[in-house]
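User: For my dataset I need records formatted as: sequence, then structure tokens, nothing else. Please produce one.
Assistant:
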Amino acid sequence: MSEQLGLFGETEDQEAVKPQEAVKPEKGALGPRVQYFDLETQKSAEDVGGWGNIHKMGLAVGVVWDSLDREFFTYEEKDAAQLVEKLRTADLAVGFNIIGFDYTVLQPYSDFDLQEINTFDMLVDVKKHLGFRLSLNHLAQHTLNAEKSADGLISLQWYKEGKINKIIKYCRQDVEITRDLFLFGEEHGFVKYQSRSGNPLQLEVDWKTAKLV
């Protein structure tokens, strides 16, 4: 996944995960096809010899939420080629650490250079303005009053245990948070975070889809 901070709050559930119903934006003009994307991996950095080998981590699950289809699309490793083709249809792909991480994991499954996809990486933009990184979980907590239900380490354990449905559910939630954070920034022109001393702060952002496509 794109970043690994979060709180684990789910209970064990052996039942199959039913497809989540997308939280659909208000209907209006169709506009560009924006795809919000996140993936989970099979292996950790430690498993593959360090962060320099992200390309060896392997795709466990990838999830896309499409602004025109207004639904989630879920892909396992066997569907990696379909995931690449889905992303290629985007007018804009949005993610959090998508360029440095997600695309690097996915690239071995593609004969197409994923860097050619028109992409907006919120982490890159936040770091450019602040000079340091903030986690998706941190921004979601302070901007949306939401937090991730698990973390990347739990997802890796689920993969080892064959609990793919749990990974899908978790990854979908990450995509939902990614989407909602971007849309909040686009609408309000800022996102919220907290200083090391605990002071609430705002970061002005210019996340207008019309400028990014």
